[in-house]
Fold these 2 entries.
Entry 1:
Amino acid sequence: MARKLLLTHIDVPGIQTFEVYRQKGGYRAVEKALKTLTPDDVVEEVKKSGLRGRGGAGFPTGMKWSFLAKPEGVPRYLVCNADESEPGTFKDRFLMTHIPHALIEGMIVSSYALGANTSYIYVRGEMMPQIRILERAIAEAKNAGFLGKNILGSGYDLELYVQPGGGAYICGEETALLESLEGKRGNPRIKPPFPAVSGLYNCPTVVNNVESIAATVPIINDGGEEYAKIGIERSTGTKLISAGGNINKPGVYEIELGLPVEEFIYSDEYCGGIAGGKRLKAVVAGGSSVPILPANLILKTLKGDSRLMTYESLADGGFQSGTMLGSGGFIVFDEDQCIVRNTWNFTRFYHHESCGQCSPCREGTGWMEKVLHKIEHGHGAFSDIDLLVDVSKKIEGNTICPLGDAAAWPVASAIRHFRDEFEWHVTHGQEAQTRNYGLAHYADPLEPVA
Ligand SMILES: Cc1cc2nc3c(=O)[nH]c(=O)nc-3n(C[C@H](O)[C@H](O)[C@H](O)COP(=O)(O)O)c2cc1C
């Protein structure tokens, strides 16, 4: 069995409550940090751990923390990004629902490290049950003296607030989130300045994902070096993966980074294989924004190495034959799924969610949606496929925030790897909507296509 750091006590009845969480060793990291470590020591442990941001970009957390400006007399903020709206990603919601104190404890440790006395958890607006769960957990922690004034007699004060999000995917982008938290429309800001210098209310701010913040608890309990022993290369520690699509066991799994993708898909400990005994066709490994890979390329790199669940291995081959670990939203497609339909579906989402500030994203996502709709519904021309590639290239890299890239990559990668399926739709018209193409994109279980 793989080691677990975040979900160790997931099966313990009542672990949602302060009492049971505490009985299981909860809040030891707060005690250790506040009683025996300076804020800089905590930052140092997080640096040593090699923890990389679990929100999608994989930026080293300790390094991000060390960029935080510390001007005299100006407050600093820690903001937890719990907006989690990326299609296919539901790991943060799982953690907040079942072990809310893991996040609260991480918020206290991290806020202490950053010298923040007021911190926020910005939760996706639709997640009302989780908002209530977190509010209850905060009240419990406060009653027990772990929040508020002079925590554990250390002289450190922290107020922690839960803020319901604005109900838009873009509010997960860190600067749009800060705008929304300030009560404005969630439009991304132009960077620089980065939040570390000018964030919430123009004050130095760190924005971190739920899982990144929760991971600071085992890092402080066991030490950064211990954490760094798990994983491979620059992918250290464990990672929550939300697995969905055509698999036997959809759910949230905590893996040790470095696990072979093949094992993740087929082993009973994780996804348990493809549902209905069908063949694997494709995987979107890190939430809807990352490039889709066909079965052969998700199981092995072009060099023939086993593809591993790490930042580096998934990216091997660049955008030609690789993808990204992203937010850990792992979506599996069986042989009967239509890549054109899925690409259209994702693109509808990005068009709907574009904030509209940048023309390439506002216009381009709508254009791609219309062309994909046309192809999917059997009215497309071959030139439409090239048009899609062209529009996606014009969006990529030309927007204030990465939502544009997130919209462009699924389209570009679907055409790169499944062009024959798009062409099939063009040549077969509406008949192509019967999903079984007879095209060779499948992999038999445990026998990857070369
Ligand atoms: C459109 C868009 C949506 C995003 N949504 C989320 C989100 O829901 N949760 C999240 O943690 N990061 C999200 N991000 C990434 C954040 O901007 C930011 O990189 C992240 O919160 C940093 O935390 P980390 O360093 O701990 O990963 C999103 C980015 C973009 C461009």
Entry 2:
Amino acid sequence: MAGGNIGDRAVVLGAGMAGLLAARLLADSYRHVTLVDRDALPDTAQPRRAVPQGPHIHGLLGRGQQVLEELFPGFTRGMASLGVPVGDFGTSLSWYFSGQMIEPSETGLICVSATRPFLENWVRERVRALPGVTLLDRADIVGLTVSGDRVTGVRVQAHGAGGAERLLAADLVVDASGKSSRTPRWLRELRYPEVPEERVKIDLTYTTADFRGPLSIHLTGDRIGLVCVASPRSPRGATLVRTQDRYSLSLYGLLGDRPPTDPDGFLAFARSLPVPEIHAAVAGAQLLDPPVSMRFPANVRRRYERVDRLPEGLLVLGDAACTFNPIYAQGMTVAAIEALVLRDHLRRGHPPRPRAFFRDLAAVVDAPWDMAAGGDLGFPGVRGRRSVAVRMGNFYIPRLQAAAARDARLSAAFLRTAGLVDPPTALMRPNVVSRVLFARRRPGVSMSVQSGGR
Ligand SMILES: Cc1cc2nc3c(=O)[nH]c(=O)nc-3n(C[C@H](O)[C@H](O)[C@H](O)COP(=O)(O)OP(=O)(O)OC[C@H]3O[C@@H](n4cnc5c(N)ncnc54)[C@H](O)[C@@H]3O)c2cc1C
């Protein structure tokens, strides 16, 4: 039975992960929920034209898995039954920071290693089946309709057949149209104040290739992959994972360092990494398709909570509100956490009030933003203001990671915070700080860390 305790119609702009999760919750409170997307929305797991990041590895962090399990009970078991590798984040993945592996450790956090199209399709199938939910695909959202200080719907233009424009009336419009969201422009045109924006430019390039197994190193059983995180000492990074039907390797470089798309150049870049196992694993494996590349210019945060006049009936979430450097794998998990903020507001029994919603949204975005944008400021070539907190974080975290090379408790503490389950303050608890400060040297493990970088 569709919800309806709050309103009749909600419209969600964009049927990516953020839009799908928002629709899942809106369906509990609105009689009709329409998800509008410009893409053809397939009923199989295939990459979509309008989601160019789809072919690249999409890790779902620990908190993301927990939220998906809560919103779709049986999620983890269901994915495992379809062949998706599932394991503990601390033992099924090997984590390297500054070229040094941290000690494996049980974190209690579950890694569900699906490709982005596979995960999105699984969620989309379930949202499509909810009572009251309609997916309107191949339709561009071209503007908002407004009456007084209230958004009353959206204008959409169907693709093909003359592209007729139509109005979709709505009590609530949720913009989840991704990083190219036009809401700031629409608000400007409607004479609302400018939405302040923060940017940390990183000029990142991702290049990803898929391989048929088996690989020449052992990645079967519970082993899901290897993560080599870029740092100022070692500014190239990579993730190698096993998914439901392939092995994928994403290589990345920052500040204009671009992993090539020709197979030889791709392998040469892999060979340049501080973790030789990555190149060794794929060097003899069969490429499924030519490598694909994507550039990601900057972390961008739109500060809706700082706008003092906004129309009623309009919310923004997902990448449309904040995009993070993808090397931290936060985007989908933050979208899931933001969906819970939406749920909290819907549970108040009245239509969400934008200013209160954006205030709460900002509170949950702060920590991942500080980790991503703050971590990026550890790279000397990244421009931006380095506050005391940013400097402290970029001094302390590399030392914690170095100490975690022989301290499983530190590994678990770090991965729980990076997984957005525990807050960053958990890493400042006395029992953690003392383990970092009094870490003893072990042969072959360097505790000397250049300042900056995560
Ligand atoms: C290279 C790369 C790797 C990444 N890796 C990870 C990772 O490991 N883990 C992770 O959690 N996140 C990762 N991300 C981020 C992740 O892709 C996003 O944060 C996440 O998908 C949430 O996005 P969204 O739903 O807000 O937007 P999107 O997924 O971009 O979806 C937006 C939707 O809106 C539609 N749309 C846009 N404009 C219009 C319009 N005008 N009219 C109609 N429809 C419109 C689009 O068709 C699309 O379907 C990565 C990103 C990149 C670039």
